[in-house]
Amino acid sequence: MLHEICHYDHGPHDETFYDLVDQVKKEGNELLIMAKGNSTVMKSLRPREAAAMAAERRLRADPWCAWLIWSDYCNP
Length: 76
What we know:
By secondary structure, this protein is an all-alpha fold.
Protein backbone atom coordinates (compact mmCIF):
# COMPACT_ATOMS: atom_id res chain seq x y z
CA MET A 1 0.00 0.00 0.00
CA LEU A 2 2.84 2.38 0.79
CA HIS A 3 4.25 1.75 -2.66
CA GLU A 4 1.03 2.94 -4.26
CA ILE A 5 0.67 5.91 -1.94
CA CYS A 6 4.20 7.02 -2.87
CA HIS A 7 3.08 7.19 -6.50
CA TYR A 8 0.92 10.18 -5.56
CA ASP A 9 4.11 12.11 -4.87
CA HIS A 10 6.40 10.61 -7.53
CA GLY A 11 5.17 8.58 -10.49
CA PRO A 12 7.99 6.72 -12.25
CA HIS A 13 9.84 3.77 -10.76
CA ASP A 14 13.23 5.39 -10.47
CA GLU A 15 15.82 5.98 -7.75
CA THR A 16 13.92 8.99 -6.38
CA PHE A 17 10.74 6.92 -6.07
CA TYR A 18 12.43 4.06 -4.24
CA ASP A 19 14.23 6.51 -1.95
CA LEU A 20 10.80 7.93 -1.07
CA VAL A 21 9.41 4.43 -0.40
CA ASP A 22 12.36 3.69 1.89
CA GLN A 23 11.89 6.99 3.72
CA VAL A 24 8.16 6.41 4.25
CA LYS A 25 8.79 2.86 5.49
CA LYS A 26 11.42 4.13 7.94
CA GLU A 27 9.09 6.82 9.27
CA GLY A 28 6.25 4.29 9.52
CA ASN A 29 8.44 1.90 11.49
CA GLU A 30 9.41 4.71 13.85
CA LEU A 31 5.73 5.51 14.37
CA LEU A 32 4.99 1.86 15.09
CA ILE A 33 7.73 1.72 17.70
CA MET A 34 6.43 4.88 19.33
CA ALA A 35 2.83 3.65 19.16
CA LYS A 36 3.67 0.36 20.86
CA GLY A 37 5.26 2.29 23.75
CA ASN A 38 2.57 4.95 23.95
CA SER A 39 -1.10 4.37 23.13
CA THR A 40 -1.65 8.15 23.16
CA VAL A 41 0.18 8.31 19.83
CA MET A 42 -2.26 5.84 18.28
CA LYS A 43 -5.19 7.96 19.44
CA SER A 44 -3.67 11.05 17.86
CA LEU A 45 -3.25 9.54 14.36
CA ARG A 46 -5.48 10.64 11.53
CA PRO A 47 -7.67 7.86 10.05
CA ARG A 48 -5.47 7.63 6.94
CA GLU A 49 -2.33 7.19 9.05
CA ALA A 50 -4.00 4.58 11.25
CA ALA A 51 -5.19 2.69 8.16
CA ALA A 52 -1.70 2.74 6.65
CA MET A 53 -0.22 1.41 9.89
CA ALA A 54 -2.84 -1.35 10.04
CA ALA A 55 -2.05 -2.32 6.44
CA GLU A 56 1.66 -2.50 7.27
CA ARG A 57 0.93 -4.75 10.25
CA ARG A 58 -1.16 -7.08 8.06
CA LEU A 59 1.57 -7.30 5.43
CA ARG A 60 4.18 -8.10 8.07
CA ALA A 61 1.94 -10.72 9.64
CA ASP A 62 1.50 -12.55 6.33
CA PRO A 63 4.51 -12.25 3.98
CA TRP A 64 2.60 -14.09 1.24
CA CYS A 65 0.09 -11.25 1.23
CA ALA A 66 2.77 -8.74 0.29
CA TRP A 67 4.09 -11.04 -2.42
CA LEU A 68 0.62 -11.54 -3.92
CA ILE A 69 -0.07 -7.81 -3.99
CA TRP A 70 3.31 -7.13 -5.62
CA SER A 71 2.92 -9.93 -8.19
CA ASP A 72 -0.57 -8.70 -9.16
CA TYR A 73 0.78 -5.18 -9.58
CA CYS A 74 3.74 -6.25 -11.70
CA ASN A 75 1.82 -8.77 -13.83
CA PRO A 76 -1.64 -7.27 -14.50
